[in-house]
Amino acid sequence: MPVTVLASAASSGVTSSALALTLASTRPSLLAECDPKGGTLRSGFLQGQVSAGLGLYHLAAADRVSPEALANVFPSHLWRIDEAGHRNILPGLTDPAQAAALGRTWATLSDVLHVLAREADHDVFIDAGRLVFTAGRLNQALTPAPLVHQADLVLLVVRNTEPSLALTRHIVDPLRAELDEHGTGSSALGLLVIEREAPRRGRGYTTHQIAEALKTPVLGALPWDPPVTDYFTEGGGPPRGYSRSDLLRHARTTTGQLEAVAQRRRVQREYPAQTANPQLVSVLRRLTHRPGGRSG
Fold first, then answer.
1. SS3 state of residue 43
2. What is the pLDDT of residues 236-266, one digit of tens each?
3. Which domains does the chain have, with CATH numbers?
4. Spatial CA neighbour of 52 closest among 93, 88, 1
5. What single string gives the DSSP state of each residue in 118-185?
């Protein structure tokens, strides 16, 4: 299953989107809150239930012992968000100053998350927060760069408004270059659109217009759903009809689309078009484009 990083150029609903995808996945899923500027789930959605003794920061101490030590303590720092234990959160930092301790830990954590995805069939979503570039490169202190580099998919979360597009436009090319040089390739990059404004009213942009403007494919779209997003950011009880909400319904569709794209990229890396039999490549591509956007 894919490891998907969600990030943005500015505050665009990254955490709420990542949580929606985690909750909507049809498979076991994990949300790793890896924003170096600090996490919000602990005080919001989790309503202060999780103490500072659990979460991302403590993995750095284990990693200083050995990568195996980090892997061993990793499960004990997850917070279960459903009764069956199929959905979990790795709570983020309680203080941005803690991020300095994670410089060498990001790569080890990335390895653990990829093993969880591939060997335990988990959907893994990483909240990387706002991406910061310095001299055209991802800032290693202010972004979890190894997580971005090694991800199967990197989603830029963008609202369908002019201000959000204007901010996102400036980081698309640097991020594409970063993924080509240090990551799994720029084909990992896609957009997750938050439909804040209705295009029919002449205020918001359609997904097609956004893809054209940013020269990047839209891999999913989620509706602006204040009752549910308020629940995600502030906690409390879920709103009426929560499980049937438009946000979770669209999130469920998006997880299927992401799986299909990730599978197609995996096939293309294993069977490069320039060396593989063209007929074989055609068959494999058809397998990753089954109806409903799901792979087998």
1. coil
2. 889 999 889 999 999 999 999 999 999 999 8
3. 3-242 (3.40.50.300)
4. 93
5. HHS--EEEEEEEE--EETTEE-TTTS-HHHHHH-SEEEEEEESSHHHHHHHHHHHHHHHHHHHHHSS-
